[in-house]
Design goal:
By secondary structure, this protein is of the alpha/beta class. It is built from 5 helices and 5 strands. Strands 3-2-1-4-5 form a 5-stranded mixed sheet. Its cofactor is Mg(2+).
Length: about 160
């Protein structure tokens, strides 16, 4: 049995999703968003770190999976995203969690079946795979998709 924490990083809204994996079976444990709601970047990074740390203490995950950096629309956005990722990763490492990174296209491929899937498709498939009564918020669904991708990777490696 493994508990996997998935993180969809963002400097203003960081999605998180937690699942339990037993063999091929995956079960929903929790999800949501860390909202930073302030203008200065250092305080946002502090809130991301604190929020991820709190989630780790609450769920006690065995694995930490996060989306890799992708090319943002502009350099400033890419730098802020990288710093948000860094805050989340430092929280994981400080709690002795192994960190795994997945490209957005791989996550979409793993969950939806195509690397070009849109957010609505990801939300729908996460809802179906985890048997949820409603679609999770977009950032939380992305984080759950990252956790599901890691669960698929674990299962594939164990079976080899």
């Amino acid at each position: 049995m493994s508990i996997i924490l998935g993180i969809d990083p963002g400097s203003r809204l960081t999605g998180y999703g937690v699942i339990r994996q037993v063999g091929r079976q995956i079960n929903y444990l929790g999800s949501g968003c860390i909202k930073t709601a302030v203008d200065d970047l250092p305080t946002r990074l502090k809130r991301i770190y604190a929020g991820v740390s709190e989630i780790i203490l609450q769920f006690q995950p065995d694995y930490f999976a996060i989306e890799q950096v992708f090319m943002a629309k502009n350099a400033d956005s890419a730098l802020k995203l990288g710093q948000a990722r860094g805050s989340a990763i430092v929280a994981a490492v400080n709690h002795e969690l192994p960190v795994y990174e997945y490209a957005a296209r791989l996550v979409k491929q793993s969950v939806v079946g195509t690397g070009a899937a849109d957010k609505k498709q990801v939300q729908h498939m996460v809802k179906m795979l985890l048997k949820l009564p409603a679609s999770p918020q977009a950032d939380a669904a992305d984080a759950l998709a990252i956790a599901i991708t890691h669960a698929h990777m674990i299962y594939t490696l164990i079976k080899k």
